[in-house]
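Example complex used in Figure S2.
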Amino acid sequence: MLLGRHETGKNSIATWSTLVRALVLVIIFGCLVLGVLGRIAPPEPLSDGELLAVFPDAVRIEISSEPFFHYRALDVSDAPLGAIVVTDSVPPAIKGYLGEIGLAVGVTVDGTITGATAVRHQETPYYMEMITGSGLLERFDELDLSRPFPDIDTVSGATVSSRSIIRDIQEASTLAAQTLFGIKIPLPVTPVKSPWTSWKTVVLTVLLVLSLLVGFTGEGVRLRYTVMLLNLAGIGFVLNTPLTLSAMSRLLTLDFPGPENTLLILILLYITVSLPFQGRAYCRLVCPFGTLGHLIARLSPWQLSLSPGTLAFLPHLRRMVLGLLLFLGVWVGWSGFTEIEPFFSLFSFKLTSILWAMVIFVLVASVFVRRFWCNAMCPTGTLLLMLGRAARPGSRGTDETV
Amino acid sequence: MKRYRKLPPAAAALLIGLTLVLIILTGWHREMVSRYPVADMPYVDMDRIKIQIEEGNVGRTEALFYRKNYAGADTTEIR
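Predicted assembly (481 residues):
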C-alpha cells in the first residue's frame, strides 16, 4: 500500500516535471517565432511630438517612402525645410548592445542637423538614461554636414550603445543630406577605431582564453580559484559584462549582437566552444556573481545542506523561473522582467533600491546555502544547462548544480 | 569530508518564496522604469510643446506620452 502510494507520487512528479520542461520549451520556441514575426512587422510611425522635437521649425510634416522611408518637414507654404530620418528604417543596420536603436534625426535642406532623439530601442533603460543625460544627443544640434564630421566621445559606462548612436546618426544624416538634398559630404578626418583593438576586448580575450584552458586541464583547485578571482575582478568589476538573461533573450528572438559589441560576441564565442566539452564552465569559472556566491560559501561557517526533496525540486524551480521570465519578458513584451538578475549592473554599483535588496538578500542566502542564486534561481545558468544538454546528450544530471 | 547541518524544508521554502517575490517586484520595477524614466533630462523645450498643444498641433495624450518618455519630467503640470 505504502509502496503503491510512493510509486504514484513518483509518477505524478515525473509527469509534472515533463509538463514544466515542455512548457519551457514551448516558451523558448515561441520566442524564436516572435523574433521572426517582429522582423516582418513594420515599425510604427512617429508621433507629432517626437517629430517636432528633432525638427522644431516644421509647420507640417508628411511621410515619404522615396527613395527611402523618411518624413518631409515643410513650412507654411509647403516648401521643403528638410527631412527627418529614423535610423532603424534606413541602411546600414547598426546595433547597440541589445539590438538596433531607432533614432530620429532632423536634417535641413542645406545639410544642418536640427536634432536627434531616441524613439525606440531595446537597450537597458539605465544605460540609455546615462546617454541621454550626458548630453550626447545635443552635441549633434546645428552640426554642419558639409564640414568634416567631428570626433565625438562615447559615454563612459555605456560605450557600445553610445558608439552605435554616434555612428547611426552620422550614417543616417549623411544619407539624407547626400541623397535627398545632393550635398557633398567630406570624408571623416579621423578613421573609425575598431572596437576589436580596444583594451577591453584584449583583456576579455585573455581572461576567456585562460578560462577555456583551465577548463580543458581539469580545473585543478589552485588554477580554478585563480581564474575565478581574475574573472571576478576583470569581467565583474573592470569590464562589468557578465552574461545576462536580457542578452540571452535577445538571442532567442534571433537578434544577434552587432560587430561593435565585441564583449558580448567574445562571451558567446567562449560559451559556444566550452559548452559541448566543458558543460556549464561559464557558471563554474567565468560568471563573476557565481564566484562571489562561491567565495561567500567557502568562507561561511554557517553552511547548511539541503534535504533530498528540496534538491530534487530545485531544477524544476529554475526551469519555472526561466519560463516565467521569458514569458513575461518576451511574449508579453515586459522587457523589465529579463533584467532582474542580481548581477545586472551590480559591478558598476549603480543599482536601484530594489536591485540592491535583491543582491543583498541573495548574497546573505549564500551564507547558508551554497551558491543559492546559481542553484535555485539563475535563469541564464538554466538556459546554458539546457543548451549544454542539447550539445552533450549524455550529460543529463551531471551538471545540475555548480 | 565536511558535514553540514540540514536546512529545514520550511526555511528553504521561505528563502525560495522571498526570492520569487523579489524577482517579481524587481521585474515590475524595471518595467516601470523603462516605461517612465525619471531622470532629469531637461533637453526638451516643453514651452514649445505647450504652445503646440494650445494650437492643436499636438494631441494632449501624445504630449503626455512624449513628456513622460523623452523629457522624463512630471506629467501633472500639463494635465
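DSSP finds three helices and one strand in chain B. Chain B has two domains: 8-37, 39-79.
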